[in-house]
Amino acid sequence: MSRSVQIREVGPRDGFQNEPERIPTDDKIRLIEALARAGFRRIEVASFVRPDVIPQLSDGVEVLNRIDIPDDVQLMVLIPNSKGLDNALKVRDRFHEAAIFVSASETHNKKNVNRSVAETMADNAVMAKRVRAEGLKCAAVVATSFGCPYEGKVELGRVLDLAERFAEAGATEIGFGDTTGMCNPMYARDFFAAALERLPGVEITAHFHNTRGQGLANAYAALEAGCTSFESSFGELGGCPVPKGSTGNIATEDLVSMFHEMGVETGLDLPAVIDAAREAQRVLGRTLTSHSLVAGPIDWHLQSA
Ligand code: ZN
To answer: How many whole angstroms from 305 Cα to the centroid of ligand 1?
Structure first.
């Protein structure tokens, strides 16, 4: 098993987009800067969706223009369609990675982006080309990879076919999203073993939601299968716009705590991640639900005293 992993913090996008109350831009910027100080070298910070669809993320350009973070932090933006890419490219120098996406299930894709999977993939192929031509890294995400709340089981072969098409279009990283928390650890292990075998040379990223409390177990299983790239959300923020009730990415601080306790390096400062989540709690004015936020990190020094 690998002794080090990469974690991309997705709270400022996947997390914030699910918040009903408008988060002031200044607070978003402050939180992203705190995350960079905690050691994240990959942060998803914005989404170029239509502002009337997700008003919470309509200040993406201002966030990108104003954040002040070290040069080696790779910023990712999510791009839903060509129009979104047009807008993102207006601030092309302010980010490094563009993520395009599709849902593996037809029904979820339709409800999420109001198009068929075929239409979405056709647009994605064009976008991937444009992203690469701009010298940006193209990442791709297959949502509902482990199950769909409307269609149930999603065939592994179907998910990997989509992933392969993304790779052929030029995506160098493919994230598999458990968008509504339907994966289980045994399936995660088989899935990531198959994905790694099918997509050599492509970075494979695990994106679990903790909707049903199995997120960390799934992450461990993915690690066991050889996956070393993960996405998570500080404070366990997050969810999915459809269907309602799909709350909770895995909490970054819990994921980091688990990895560190197992001797797996993340490059992150756990107390600083917890502080950032605590600050998010203050900004949002409600109690967040991650375990590490409630209990704090394990302090072996104190326990042995
Ligand atoms: Zn997600």
So the answer is: 40
Sign of the CA dihedral with 88 first, then 102, 117, and 211 last: negative
Tens of pLDDT along 67-86? 999 999 999 999 999 999 99
Q: What is the pLDDT of residues 158-212, one digit of tens each?
A: 999 999 999 999 999 999 999 999 999 999 999 999 999 999 999 999 999 999 9
How far apart, in whole angstroms, are the C-alpha atoms of residue 212 and residue 223? 20
Q: Which of 244, 266, 248 is nearest to 257 (CA)?
A: 266
Q: How far is the CA of 43 from the centre of ligand 1 (A)?
A: 13
**CA 231 to centroid of ligand 1, rounded, Å:** 8
240 is catalytic: yes
Catalytic residue, chosen from 138, 148, 227, 240, is 240
Domain annotation for the chain: domains and CATH numbers: 6-304 (3.20.20.70)
Gap from CA of 304 to ligand 1 centroid (Å): 38
Q: What is the pLDDT of residues 269-299, one digit of tens each?
A: 999 999 999 999 999 998 998 999 999 888 8
What is the 71 CA–ligand 1 centroid distance (Å)? Answer: 26
pLDDT-based confidence at residue 305 (cuts at 50, 70, 90): low
